[in-house]
Design brief:
The protein has 163 residues and is mainly β. Helices cover 4% and strands 44% of the residues.
């Protein structure tokens, strides 16, 4: 099944792109876009404060009758996992439905734990509130903020699914 294939509720193929994040240490960045999917994975090492508008990827264009789903998992690195906070994703500046932020568990209680979250957006409803901004336009997905005191790994997958 290729990228041009119609996605079903359980996709067979997900395009994964690896991004380095600019933080306390810089890494090379690689980006890619897909027709119905975008994804990223990488180690986050936020400076004091938070990284703003961290890219997830770009979906070619929004479509009527579709939902946008973003799934995220954050996990520890060998250096630890204390204090990670991930703010909900946005598409072209519009926040998705779901938790405002996801916090890592206390590392003293859950060493090497992972946290996951799912966010969604009905593109028809969002388009009616923001005419001309989503349907037929590229969907640029970002995390609002990635925060934390030590490095951690984040993986995110965005999929556009037919309702």
């Amino acid at each position: 099944m290729g990228l041009n294939a119609r996605l079903r509720p359980v996709p067979v193929l997900v395009v994964v792109l690896v991004l380095g994040f600019v933080g306390a240490s810089s890494e090379a960045q690689q980006t890619s876009s897909g027709k119905n999917t975008a994804a990223m994975t990488g180690e986050v090492d936020p400076p004091p404060g938070c990284l703003q508008d961290v890219p997830i990827g770009t979906i070619e264009k929004g479509k009527k009758g579709h939902l946008l789903i973003v799934e995220m998992t954050a996990s520890s690195t060998p250096e630890g996992f204390p204090g990670a906070r991930i703010f909900k994703p946005q598409v072209d500046g519009i926040g998705l439905e779901g938790a405002n932020s996801v916090d890592s568990p206390d590392s003293s209680q859950f060493d090497n734990a992972a946290v996951s979250a799912v966010w969604w957006l009905d593109l028809d409803a969002a388009e009616s509130n923001n005419p001309g901004e989503l349907v037929g336009q590229p969907l640029e997905l970002t995390f609002g903020q990635l925060c934390g005191g030590d490095p951690y790994r984040v993986t995110a997958v965005a999929r556009m699914l037919k309702k």
